[in-house]
Amino acid sequence: MNDDAELIAAFFRLAARDGWRGATIAAAASEVGMPWPEARGRFATRGALLRRFGEMADQAALDGADTEGPPRDRLFDLLMRRFDTLQAHRDGVLALLRALPTDPAMAAVLACGTRRSMRWMLDAAGVPTHGLLGELRVRGLIAVWLWAARAWERDDSDDLTGTMAALDVALLRAEQVAVWLNGRSEG
To answer: What pTM value is reported for the model?
Structure first.
């Protein structure tokens, strides 16, 4: 495990125990035996830590992802890989989600990161993201992700059955909208 991953894992453990506002990067650094100046150099803010966590989730999704099959199946695989990363830090991520309504700055960081991530997921699945239609696809996948994330929040199964079901339904609906949009743009 690299130093970023160790520090992030410690931060999310603290967030699970003390709440999102109660967790600090300095305390996480102390927990993993990292000097505070080094931790500060890695993550000057919680937002920087959250951005790096999102990048790690993206990388985990992309590493070894399916490159065969229909885009919907590839997106399902990619997004479930992202949920696997969240699941490893579940209680801390849930603490973050509970804090978002009263932390607009963190909500903005998360929104921007989610947009970047969903563009990566579409690109990895071979779905074009350029132009107006591409932007609609990105926004559609954000909606799919948020729908599935709400299910993930409530899913206490070991194998994330409820999350998979919600993601499957959301991707099916998005696919139906995409077919409709493609038909409209050709007409």
So the answer is: 0.92
